[in-house]
């Protein structure tokens, strides 16, 4: 991959006392790791299928392409659309290689099957070519971000240096990335117990966070005969409390609360083998 023009240089602001990163005055600060994860899952392959690309197409890939020098950006877009081979700019193929490289790095460090030990991380970083040419750490000063907070002002020379800087800051600050339990992609949790990301997952615009718990629960129900019987009985008893029936004895809120408590206790006993499973299912139908 050849070097980029001087106009591709950029100031990146990283919070001194907060795990935030900012790529330009027109962009708000984001949590460290979010823009890198945005890049590794962006649809760069889709851009390759197009006849031509616009600046907005690259804005969704990474904030770098919206914040770098407009002269460099214009020449870069022209280079991509003209499919130049001998160019000092990144091509779509270059970006795809970078995407795979950093996706593999993040997955190897943060996936549920990885072993996040210090020696492994040290080897990953030492084997990365970008580490040998990283200049931004020697071109770092104190500054202030767009929201007025004190930050470290890094002067980066290329897009890959931006990616590698964010990766190393994630490791240095022990920023945690986890796999979404619904879509399986990495994300930066905003709460310590977050299990689902906020990516749009369904055709009607619902996110993993909105549907993830329900889908996971439904999958567990289908694989758990006792839980399936309990869930069916729960819905029936809840309806007796909220929707009075003529043929079925109605329940008060207090009666439903007592049934719910007993049903949960018996479910745990049946799972532990302390209560016969068929006896429990028969009790649920009463």
Basic shape: elongated
Helical content, roughly?
Answer: 40-55%
Low-confidence stretches: 1-6
What is the string of SSEs from the N terminus onward?
Answer: EEEHHHHHHHHEEHEEHHHH
* Cα-atom radius of gyration: 26 Å
Decide which structural class fits the backbone.
Answer: alpha+beta
How would you describe what is shown here?
The chain has 286 residues and is an alpha+beta fold. The chain is 49% helix and 9% strand. It has 13 helices and seven strands. The chain has helices at residues 34-40, 44-48, 55-59, 64-67, 70-81, 92-110, 118-126, 129-132, 159-172, 208-222, 225-242, 253-271, 277-284, and strands at 10-15, 20-22, 30-31, 140-144, 150-156, 178-179, 186-187. The strands form two sheets. The protein has a five-stranded antiparallel β-sheet with strand order 3-2-1-5-4. It has a two-stranded antiparallel sheet with strand order 6-7. Helix 1 (34-40) packs across helix 6 and helix 11 packs parallel to helix 13 (277-284). The longest helix is centred in the middle third of the chain and has 19 residues, at 92-110. The N and C termini lie far apart (71 Å).
Short recap of the structure:
This protein has 286 residues and is an alpha+beta fold. It has helices at residues 34-40, 44-48, 55-59, 64-67, 70-81, 92-110, 118-126, 129-132, 159-172, 208-222, 225-242, 253-271, 277-284, and strands at residues 10-15, 20-22, 30-31, 140-144, 150-156, 178-179, 186-187. It is elongated.
């Amino acid at each position: 991959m050849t070097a980029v023009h001087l106009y591709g240089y950029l100031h990146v602001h990283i919070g001194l006392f907060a795990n935030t990163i900012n790529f330009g005055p027109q962009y708000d600060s984001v949590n460290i790791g979010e823009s890198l994860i945005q890049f590794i899952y962006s649809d760069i392959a889709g851009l390759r299928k197009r006849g031509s690309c616009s600046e907005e197409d690259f804005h969704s890939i990474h904030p770098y392409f919206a914040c770098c020098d407009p002269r460099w950006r214009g020449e870069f877009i022209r280079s991509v659309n003209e499919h130049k081979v001998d160019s000092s700019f990144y091509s779509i193929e270059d970006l795809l290689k970078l995407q795979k490289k950093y996706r593999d790095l993040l997955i190897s460090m943060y996936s549920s099957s990885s072993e996040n030990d210090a020696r492994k991380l040290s080897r990953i970083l030492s084997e990365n070519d970008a580490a040998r040419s990283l200049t931004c750490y020697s071109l770092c000063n104190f500054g202030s971000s767009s929201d007025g907070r004190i930050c470290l002002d890094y002067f980066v020379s290329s897009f890959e240096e931006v990616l590698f800087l964010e990766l190393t800051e994630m490791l240095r600050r022990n920023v945690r990335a986890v796999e979404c339990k619904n879509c399986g992609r990495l994300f930066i949790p905003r709460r310590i117990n977050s299990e689902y990301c906020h990516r749009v997952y369904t055709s009607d615009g619902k996110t993993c966070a909105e549907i993830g718990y329900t889908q996971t629960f439904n999958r567990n129900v289908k694989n758990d005969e006792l839980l399936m019987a309990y869930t069916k009985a729960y819905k029936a008893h809840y309806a007796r409390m909220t929707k009075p029936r003529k043929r079925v004895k109605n329940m008060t809120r207090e009666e439903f609360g007592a049934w719910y408590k007993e049903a949960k206790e018996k479910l745990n006993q049946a799972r532990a083998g302390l209560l016969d499973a068929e006896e429990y299912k028969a009790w649920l139908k009463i």
